[in-house]
């Protein structure tokens, strides 16, 4: 198979990244009650890094693995995510291979 036809494995790509995690999240759920009543739960579907998990009737935000792509900010139909970049010196470092 030629290189151009090779499938990209997202897990392999994510494995190359390194992360410097802050102690506080840069992704804040504005109102947990809105999430509890949110039918779509788009944040659990669109995030390429699986940062949002719905557990025990709450959205859990694993901000440490965020790729800073901004998709969740756009995908939340209730504008319920206070989205910021991590503080300087923190966040993802991409490695291309
Ligand atoms: S899509 Fe928005 S409102 Fe719905 S669960 Fe996710 S963060 Fe909460
Ligand atoms: S910015 Fe991208 S990677 Fe980070 S939580 Fe939102 S969708 Fe996931």
UniProtKB/TrEMBL annotation:
Species assigned in the record: Clostridium frigoris
Residues in 4Fe-4S ferredoxin-type domain copies: 25-56, 57-86
Biological role: Could be a 3Fe-4S cluster-containing protein.
Pfam families tied to this protein: Fer4_ETF_QO
Full protein name: Ferredoxin-like protein
Keywords assigned: Electron transport, Iron, Iron-sulfur, Metal-binding, Nitrogen fixation, Transport
Residue runs in coiled coils: none
InterPro entries named in the record: 4Fe4S_Fe-S-bd, 4Fe4S_Fe_S_CS, ETF-QO/FixX_C, Fd_FixX
Record family assignment: To ferredoxins from P.putida and C.tartarivorum, ferredoxin I from A.vinelandii, ferredoxin II from D.desulfuricans.
């Amino acid at each position: 198979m030629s290189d151009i036809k090779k499938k990209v494995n997202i897990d392999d790509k994510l494995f190359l990244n390194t992360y410097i995690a802050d102690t506080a999240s840069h992704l804040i759920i504005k109102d947990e009650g809105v999430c509890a009543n949110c039918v779509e739960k788009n944040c659990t579907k669109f995030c390429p890094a699986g940062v949002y998990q719905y557990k025990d009737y709450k959205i859990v935000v694993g901000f440490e693995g965020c790729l800073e792509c901004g998709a969740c900010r756009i995908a939340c139909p209730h504008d319920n995510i206070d989205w910021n970049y991590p503080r300087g010196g923190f966040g993802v470092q991409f490695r291309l291979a």
